[in-house]
């Protein structure tokens, strides 16, 4: 994992890509994936793994989500096969905690989520 610190958002917008490429030796910003976390020292954990100690509940959560989707969906082909990753992606999209991690190719989207989570965590204190 690579971290670059800036004094403010203006400095980040002006220098992020240039500093990232210079410090990594890469020639293109498209060589990177970004994740918006409020603290660079945090482990890469999914929302489910942060919230739930009993990991066996994950399969039950996804099964219940799938059943609810099938109940309220008129198309039988919403989940045509038992594809756990597809079901988890739908579940995450609708706000359920999953074991998936969000990644983006845009450092600006990642920055948005970093700032968003910083604000949420600050308001919880």
TrEMBL record:
Record SMART domains: FRG (SM00901)
FRG domain boundaries: 28-120
Positions of transmembrane segments: 100-120
Top-level taxon: Bacteria
Keywords from the named record: Membrane, Transmembrane, Transmembrane helix
InterPro entries, A to Z: FRG-dom
Protein name: FRG domain-containing protein
């Amino acid at each position: 994992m690579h971290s670059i610190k800036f004094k403010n958002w203006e400095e980040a917008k002006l220098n992020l890509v240039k500093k990232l490429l210079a410090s990594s030796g890469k020639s293109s910003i498209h060589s990177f994936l970004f994740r918006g976390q409020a603290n660079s020292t945090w482990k890469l954990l999914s929302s489910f793994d942060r919230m739930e100690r009993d990991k066996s509940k994950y399969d039950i959560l996804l099964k219940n989500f799938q059943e609810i989707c099938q109940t309220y969906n008129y198309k039988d082909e919403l989940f045509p096969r038992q594809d756990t990753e597809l079901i988890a992606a739908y579940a995450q999209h609708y706000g359920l905690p999953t074991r998936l991690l969000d990644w983006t190719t845009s450092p600006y989207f990642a920055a948005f989520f970093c700032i968003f989570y910083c604000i949420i965590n600050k308001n919880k204190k």
